[in-house]
Design a protein that fits this description.
The protein is 72% helix and 0% strand. The protein is mainly α. GO terms for molecular function: DNA-binding transcription factor activity; transcription cis-regulatory region binding.
Amino acid sequence: MSTSSDDLRAIALAEFTVSGYAATSLHRIAELAGLSKSSVLYHFASKEVLLEAAVAPAIHRMAEILDELASGPFTPERRSAFLTEFVDFILQYRREVNLFINQGPSLVDVPVIDRANELVITLAEYFQATTGSVEDKMRFGIALGGAAYTLCSQDTFGYDIPITETRAALITILSELLAPIATAPIPTAPLSAV
């Protein structure tokens, strides 16, 4: 059985998440894939290129979500749609989110991680501009960051909650946490998605 580029991306992402990007070598990824290092290099010129390939789909999807968020007023209906999209995003890209949260600050000179960090800043700036009180701003930070961290913790600490139950619970909890917030008009400058 041959190992494809998709397989290598999945193996690398899992190892980057568990062992850390800095501590993971191409030799280790090759070993986990049952290949030689030169076979991995045939598909990906470097560890950084492999990281880019592994996390770029998540960055692209997050940019799409931010574009949709910025496309109109943040009504209660759009808030509900955003929360569902956000939960689906963190469920689909759980390992990537884990990598961004836990290793992003230490990988600031890695271009793909810089783009991910810029998206997180863009999201935070959006809610800073569209919410009124400090309490409301903090609600968004705690709700969205807490949801992402909770999923990272499930993987790290081995919680075994079925995905459908996790999804429903996160959407309900986020909706309840953010329900009291009255949002301000959308900012006049568009979000600067990466």
